[in-house]
Amino acid sequence: MADAVVFDMDGVLVESEHLWEELWTAYAAGHGRSWGPEQTRDVQGMSAPEWAAYLTRFCGAGDPAETTERTVVDGMVQALADGRIELLPGAREMITATAERGPVALASSAPRRVIDAVLVHHGVDHHFKATVSSAEVPRGKPSPDVYLAAANALGVAPERCLAVEDSSNGLRAAAAAGMTVVAIPNPQYPPAEDALAAAAFRSPDHGAVRDFLLSRLDARDAREAREAREARDARPEHRPDARGE
């Protein structure tokens, strides 16, 4: 059984992986380079500083990686404003149902600006007790850092967390963190079989994944964990992190 759920965002909650690829491709084309599937596979799961450095090197651009990152992230924020980043079918129901049963966190490779904008835009931000960007930890996926940070923010041991992922490096990161891995394979960017092998459950259907998550969340243990967190939060010396509750 489990006490909490940690979701990835791109490809799990929203349809956005293709937009990142579109923006990386456009940036490369603007510098006379051709970006292809091999480059996309290389950077999937990387934090924004990591993929920005990769993209800058790939293009031979004279701009610093921070400028590359800002250009691409500006494009993602504009895509959201233009209505191009939608919740995947069943994602809202999956978030809502699991948040009613236990604490929910987000562990995403997206930069903070995109995470906050997407969750607020779709009106689901209040369901998340903590959100962590890979840019806020030492290493991006497939390293487990972002998942370990999310579990720590929830006050739940990683082995008592369910992690929902779609990409190869995301699945590897969740497994390396010691979480129970649940896969929603992305048909446009199919995860590698070795990464899928770590999943305790896999389905392309969000309804089926929701039902699995609910079946593994222990209502009694989740309630006790919540009460323990509330008692901890009530202590005068406790100061919650700005990203969690």
In brief, what are we looking at here?
By secondary structure, the protein is of the alpha/beta class. Helix content is 49%, strand content 11%.
Overall pLDDT score? 92
What percentage of residues falls in helices of 4 or more residues? Answer: 40-55%
Strand order of the largest sheet: 3-2-1-4-5-6
* Tally of helical segments: 11
Secondary-structure element series: EHHHHHEHEHEHEHEHH
Runs in which pLDDT lies below 50 for 5 or more consecutive residues are: none
Taking the alpha carbons of the first and last residues, their distance comes to 23 Å
Record field, number of beta strands: 6
What's the overall geometry?
globular
Give the radius of gyration: 18 Å
Tell me the strand percentage band: 5-15%
Let me know the largest β-sheet.
Answer: 6 strands, parallel
Indicate the structural class: alpha/beta
Can you offer a commentary on this structure?
A six-stranded parallel sheet has the order 3-2-1-4-5-6, sandwiched between helices. Helix 6 (112-121) links the parallel strand 2 (104-108) and strand 3. The chain contains eleven helices and six strands. With 245 residues, it is an alpha/beta fold. The mean pLDDT is 92. It is 49% helix and 11% strand. Helix 3 packs across helix 4 (65-81). The relative contact order is 0.17.
